[in-house]
Amino acid sequence: MNWQKQRQHVLDRLAFVPGGTDREGNALLVISTSQVQECSYENLVSLLALLSDTLPPSTLFTVLLDTRHIQLKQLKFYLRACQQALYKKVRQVLIIQPEKFLDQQKINFDLIVSGYTLKTVLVSMHKLSKFVDVNQLPEQFGGTLGYDPDSWLSKRIEIKKWQNYLVEVDADSSKHSLDDDQKLEEFITKLQSTKRIEDEYASNILKKSVRDVKLKEEENSKEGLIKDHTAGVSDFLDWIEGSGEKWLNSLCQVADNVDEAESLVKQHEELTNKTKEIEEQSHQLAEMATRLMAACPQVAIVLQKTREQIRDVAEHFAYRVEAQTQFAVSNRTFREKVAEFIKKSDLMLEKVCAEDGASVKTVEELTSTKKELDDLVNSMNVSFETAMDAGEETVAKARQYSEVLPAEEFVSHIGSSLTYISQRQNRHNELASVKRLEQQQHLQLMTTYGDCDQAIKWLGELKETLHKEYSLSDIDEDAVKNLRNDRQNLDRTAVSTYQYGKQLLSMAKNSERSAMKESSTDERKEKLETAWKELNLAIQNNEQRLKVVESFMATHRQMMERVNEIEKSLRERLRVSGKLNSIVLSTERKRLKNDIEELSNIGNMLSAQINADHATTLQDRQTAVKQISDKINEVMTAQRRMESLIIEEEEAGSSSSGKEDKHSSRKARPLSKVPEEEGGDVSPVFPRAVRLLETNEGIAPAIRLSKNESYL
């Protein structure tokens, strides 16, 4: 169809298809009679053929010829052209007859004589609607159907352009354009919206051409996909069986150190990344095979086998890569733990072999050194256990993937490493045990030295405590009794401390022999004995002073009891006889007076001793001296109170002078001579010079110091 050559004839409406139909449904073809003289026969036939091709081949035409303004030979020209161009496609030719009767008869006669194969019908203009509805007739025939030759021709030209495009795409798929396809779809939709017969036919032709192009592209695509799939499968298998297998086998080994293990892990990571790409490629090939199986059923069996083969090969290769990678990672962890164990064992060995020299002297330093060694040994043992666990895990990995790994070789290699670190750990522990035993002996010796020094120090502290806290600051029976109890506890503590020090010296001597150290116990033994002698002397001095105080307290108590007894006897005689004189109980009173003087002397000497003890504070010394003085004053006050009874009675009975002179003429004798002169036995000496004397009225207590006993 070359619409460019017929462009002017179409625009001049020489012949056109208005888009209407007759009452039987045949398409209308209008031939204009005003342009016949300007068109050749060949052009008219060509134009009619082009117009016929715009409709489906089965379409029958009803041709409209207006003979009102033409001659008979021109009618023959049109009919012959229609008969040639529209052979067997013309249903009827509606000839609008001229207005003159004679012309009508000529045309009718000529049609009868010529014997055209076309069915011709002469019809007047006003009877044309009998064959064609008014709304299907063009305006020039009194109808209402519009026709725009410019728009109609533009569509035909564009249809031709898209037909040429589809032909080019069919010949060369590289000229396919998505934008053009989109425009073509829009143009087809536009043609269908006009609801004209020729437009619907053109849209159907374009659709069919598009489908044909797509089918051909699909066929070509299937063939190309099959070729691409075959090539992809070949490349895939070549890499797996060639480069991939060599790469994988080169990494199937056991590293002996951390650096080699780290390098193997990195190479396995690279191989893993490549394997992921291979797996992705296998998925793509399998998916392509699945699509080709649906599109090409004739090769579905081959494609299915190929797909399964690809999947099996890819999965097996990926499993082998994963197995080697897992083992490499586990072996790297094992080598790291082994390296850590060796490092810590070396540190522990350095500590064991280090010379202590003479720098470590104190228990704290020895304890710190021993703790450091213990920490290093514990750290080494923990690292050993961790390394053993990592090795066992590595062996388990090798056995887990035994079907794709040389498990026995790997297990043997790991086992030799485990044996090595086990032997190394045993040797280091034995050395550490010897070193710790030596440190323990040294520490025990230093501890014994320290305890012995502490025992000596305790003895000195007990001595100081005896001087400071066991001096008399309160002259009272309860205080003296408590002091005596405390002193006894101190004595027991001193003895146990001394015995403890002697035991420590014995232990130190044994430890020195065990550790083959130079003996230093003699000096400590001398210090211990010196401290004990000083403490023992202080205890004896304190004991003597305490006995003096106890004697003073007992004498004070006895004196108070005697004064009270004598006073009671005097009051009893006064009640019975009604009078008293100076000779009543004179012996007991004089002895009591002398004993009070002796008690005063003892108190004075005890006060002097207390004042001389500067270990006690001044306030405590003053308090003790005051208490001694108070006790002496208490006895003297009681004695004066007793004597006041006789003095008061003598003053009341001064009138009886005779009797008093008789009694007063008696020779006075000292209280101390009375027993001997009266023939009485001397009372035995009690502890602390306490004794009892017999009198006429009974037994009355008397307190004296023995003649051979000092006040201290």
From TrEMBL:
Keywords: Coiled coil
Keyword check for ATP-binding: no
Domain CRAL-TRIO: 41-149
InterPro entries linked: CRAL-TRIO_dom, CRAL-TRIO_dom_sf
Molecular function GO labels: phosphatidylinositol-3,4-bisphosphate binding; phosphatidylinositol-3,5-bisphosphate binding; phosphatidylinositol-3-phosphate binding; phosphatidylinositol-4,5-bisphosphate binding; phosphatidylinositol-4-phosphate binding; phosphatidylinositol-5-phosphate binding
Residue runs in coiled coils: 261-291
Region (Disordered): 648-685
SUPFAM superfamilies hit by this protein: CRAL/TRIO domain (SSF52087), Spectrin repeat (SSF46966)
UniProt protein name: CRAL-TRIO domain-containing protein
